[in-house]
Amino acid sequence: MSLRTPPPAQPASILVIDDEPVIRDTLAEFLRGEGYAVAAAESGERAVELASARRFDVALCDVNLPGMDGLDVLDRLAALCPETFVILITAYATVETAVEAFQKGAHDYLVKPILLHDVHAKIARLLRQRDLYRENQWLRRELNRGAEAGELVVGRTPAMKRVMDLARRVAPTPSTVLILGESGTGKDVVARVIHRLAQAAKPTDGRFVPVNCAAIPHELMESQLFGHRKGAFTGADRDSPGVFVHAGAGTVFLDEVGELPLTTQAKLLRTIEQKEVLPVGASEPVKVQARILAATNKNLEKEAAAGRFRQDLFFRLNVVSLTLPPLRDRRDDLPELAAFLLARHAEAAGKPFTGLSHEAMQAALAYPWPGNVRELDNALQRAVILGEPPLVLPEDLPPNLTPPAGEPAGTDDLRVAVARFERQYIARVLEHTPDKREAARRLGISLSSLYRKIEEGEAP
Ligand SMILES: Nc1ncnc2c1ncn2[C@@H]1O[C@H](COP(=O)(O)OP(=O)(O)O)[C@@H](O)[C@H]1O
Ligand SMILES: [Mg+2]
Asked: Strands, DSSP E only, in 143-202?
C-alpha cells in the first residue's frame, strides 16, 4: 500500500516550524516534492500568524525555538486551529519527552536527527487517521487543563496578564478592590479568583458572598446587607445576619455597586471604616471581618460628579482598581477563551466538540463582541446545541457574526458598489504586498478586519 495520501484535488497543507534554516528548508523541500502544500516559519510567533491566516492539516514543530517554544506553539494551535495535527520535533529520544509531548496534546513526535522517511510515514498516518483523531483529542485536553487550574481565568494578552498580576498581589491583603469593566468581561470570575487566592494564602471558613446591588429592591437592601433583628419590620420573624456577617472572614462581592441608593452608600462607608454593621432594628453594632470587593460597569467618578455616588465611598472602594479590557481589545485571547468555554458546554451537553472550524474562528475573530466574553459564551452554547460535533461551523454561530455570502447581481446599490470596489482595491494592495500584516498597515485597517474582508471577498 502506498503511503501517499494527499488527495489529488487539494494537497494536504503542512506548516514547518524550525529556527534552523537547514532543517526547515530540507523538510519543506522534501515535503513539496511529496506533493504537499508547504509553508515554513522560523519562529513560533510567525507560525501562529500563519495559522491564523489559513488552515494547515499538519504542523511539524521543533520543541526548542527561541521566544515562544514548541509547547507554547502547541497550546496556541490547539485553541486557534484544532483541526491541525501537530508533530513535535524533539532533540532527545527519551520516553519522558514523548510522554510530555502527548500529554501536551501533540499527535505525534519525531526525534532528531530526522529521517525523511519517518516524516513522510507519520504525516501519512495522521492524515489517514484524521477522523478518529478529530473525535476527542482536543476536548479531553481542554477539560483536563480546566480541571487542573480550577475555575481559571483565561487570558494571555498583556492587558489580562496585568490584571491577573495585580489580582494575585492584592488578593492576600485586606484591601478593598474595585473591579471595573464592561458587562461580560469577567468581573465575577476575577472576584472569585481573588477570594480563592486570599483563602489559599490564609485559610479560614469564610465564604464568598456575591450581592447584586441592582437586583435587590431598595426596601430590602439594608436588611440584606446589614441584617435585621426579629420584629424590626413586618415579616421579620427572626434575626437575620446579613451578608457581611454571613461571609465571616471571607469576601462580600458587591456587584453593580453603582446602583446602591445613596442612603445605603452612607451605611456601607461606615461599615468599611468601622468594620461593623448596624442591623436594622438593632441598637448595638456588630463587628464584621469580611473583605469587600466591588464591581461596576459604570464610571463611578462621573457618577460621583453627578451626585449619584458618594465621593468618599468611591475613594474607599477604589484603593486598588482592576480594569478588565473589553474582548474586542484583546482578540488574541479569543481562541483560548473559545476553546475553554466550548469544552465546558460540550461536556455539559455530552457532545464531543473539539473546536471551531477555520472559517468559524475567522468569523469570531472579526466580530466586535459588544457583550464580551458572556456573548461569546452564549454563542458557543448555542453552537453546541444546534451543531454537530466535532467542529463548530460558521452556520452554528449567531447570524450576526457571519455576514451574508454573495450579493444581488446587477444593482446600483451604493453599498454593494462600495463593497465591490473595496474588494478590488484590497486585492490589488495584496498583490503588491503579500505580507498581510504589512498590507493591513498600508490599508489603515486591523489585521483581523483584513482577514474578514478577504473571507468576505472569497464568498460566492
Ligand atoms: N477570562 C475568563 N476566563 C474564563 N471565562 C471567562 C473569563 N471572563 C469571563 N468568563 C466567562 O464569561 C461569562 C461572563 O463573565 P462574568 O464574570 O460574569 O462577567 P461580568 O461580571 O464582567 O459581567 C462567565 O460565564 C464567565 O465564566
Ligand atoms: Mg457580573
From this structure: 177-181
